[in-house]
Amino acid sequence: MQFGKEFYPHKTLDRLGFKRAKCKFCSKFFWSKQNRDFCDDDECRVRANIERYGFIGRPIGKRHSYIESWYTWVRVFKKFNHTPIKRYPVIARWRDDVFFVEASIYNFQPYVVSGEVEPPANPLLVPQFCLRFNDLENVGVTGRHYSGFVMIGEHAFNYPEKFIYFKDKGIYYIYNLLTTGFKIPDEEIFFHEDSWEGGGNAGPCIEFFVQGLELGNQVYMQFKKINSELRELETKVIDMGAGLERYPWLTTGLKTSYEIVFPKTLKFLNQFDLSYQERVKLADYTRTLFISLFDSALPSNAGGGYNLRKILRLCFKILRNKNLNLDLVELMKIHSREFELYPELKNTDFEIIKDILSEEEGKYKQTIKNAIKIIKKTREFDLQTLRKLYESYGITPEIIREIKPEIKIPENFYETKKEKIKKEEKIFDLVDLPETEKLYYQGKTRTIAKVLKMIDSYVILDKTVFYPRSGGQDCDLGYINGKQVLDVIKQDNIILHKINDKLKEGKFVELLVDEKRRKQLMQHHSAAHIINGAARRILGKHAQQAGAEKRIDKAHLDMFHYKKISEDDIEKIEELANNCIKESREILVTFINRMEAEKKYGFEIYQGGAVPGKEIRIVNIKDWDIEACSGLHVSNTALVGKIVIIRVKKIQDAVIRIEYLAGEAAEAYLKKIEKILDECAKILDCRVEEVYEKTKELFESWKKNKKYGRN
């Protein structure tokens, strides 16, 4: 995609004395104050027979440390009314299409960029930690590649009714940063014209270089791309990203950027028999793992956990090959002190991290043993087979290559697993239909409504008391004009009711919900939030929700956890959950602006996944659990009745399922168990409290008789 000169901030660049030229190597246009016919991209410099990086050994500008570089960004951009904000977690809980944050703009997609939600500040500056796993082989080699790095995000959101600034001011701010902030002579600066597209949007962009090093890229998100056609966006966005690590490298002229980013970590690693590349990889990988674990991510065979397990096992491999007994947690402790940009890291629970790494190391050693046997039996190593080996046995491509060096591993193996898979849902044509008025949030179970449309066996009304299947909670059932309601679903903001008959459009009908069913579903849903809060208190803050289902006959809560839960911990979770019920905690439900909710409660509110909309519904169990949730709840924990955990099992790597019952379903279950025990006591001719010992005694006797062949 190419744009003409008029799409770039040429007026400002002209005014600042920069001249436009075309690179004889890459054919891109660039702006500089030097009289030359090639741009400052490192590859073009090499083709012109000059150093790839001209600042190594010859620093440019005023010397900066890692943290000082951030302070300079803040000082300069505060002059231009930018508000610095805190980083977002590396797990993109607010999105349903990606696992990790790879660029600072991810923080504001899709709702801020679309104009649906206001940004936390406008304009703003954010030091966002980003994860990228596509260049791991270059970490420690190029001097600039990382698996995790700080992207300085400069963002301005220009809405039709509120213009902030765009191209010309944007590039002037960058020029001012480089020349007055970092004291870089302007004859050293090159601005390259380029283009960008992603997520259905596109626009021109300006990359800025000094002595071969790209310092950042200012994207002018201006167009929406539809079938190769560009259409102007209503909301135009400045999306500038710059790797913080490159600024202290440029201004110190060190051989690599790692020396100034990880000085204490590398010094600690100097005592071990490791190559420079190995030391850098350990420093970089452990920092990425540390921040990810701090943000409650877990290594696994599923989703984004693929990549975390990969870099952790690369660390284990380095240590195994060198026969080193090096505690990776010690490296993470150094990072917590060395990485001043994120002071929250000093509050890390290192005991949990130590336990996670210990579990992972045990799995790694067992995987190596198993891999040798399995790989010898495997004949083909196509992408499908590689996936199966990884998902079923935890055998990574790297382990396969250790055992069979001739096997070729697809470069995109991990990349193709990083995006979340969206579930396909049935789509109805609901054009021109108004949003359904949702009376179920008012606690209503009956009303009169008007039939707006029938689509197949689904009826759409102007209002409803029927809660649709959503967020893992089963739907309400009941009757519409005496016709049985078989299912209730939601598409966008319209509710569809499946019935076993037809209703005439325009007719007024009576709606009646099965109140007993609703009560049980509410008890199960509120119980899920109570168990969620209890589990985090017992297992740790990483124990976040991975999924849930609430039906009338059973319910379960899936949670991220790195190992099997002990019986003792299960009992503690159940006891704590029931204590919460006994304490009669109020359950408050409010609608609140998305940004306000994120600021006030943090991103842990997205326990059930991404929640759409400008306003989100917050369910707050006082001093216990706060979540964004669209489900129906009781008004006080006491109304849940009782919680019984009936089983806990592992359903996939790093995910456990807690099966439970609450309220009337729990009471019915306990009565059933009591009845079974009474029957057993009668059969065994003993008291109920003696059933266990009597059964054990009987079983041992049976085993003994079987051993000696007696009937």
- Beta fraction of the residues? 15-25%
What is the level 1 CATH name of the largest domain?
A: Alpha Beta
If you average the pLDDT, what whole number results?
93
Name the overall outline: globular
The name CATH uses for the topology of the largest domain is: BirA Bifunctional Protein, domain 2
CATH architecture of the largest domain: 2-Layer Sandwich
Indicate the structural class: alpha+beta
Tell me the Rg in angstroms: 30 Å
Separation of the first and last Cα atoms: 84 Å
Q: In the CATH hierarchy, what is the superfamily of the largest domain?
A: Bira Bifunctional Protein, Domain 2
Q: What oligomeric state do the depicted chains represent? A: single chain
When the domains are counted, the total is: 6
* Strands, total number: 24
- Ranges where pLDDT stays below 50 over 5 or more residues in a row are none
Q: Helical content, roughly?
A: 25-40%
Query: Which strand order spans the largest sheet, edge to edge or round the barrel?
Result: 1-2-6-7-8-9-5-4-3
Biggest sheet statistics: 9 strands, mixed
- Tally of helical runs: 18
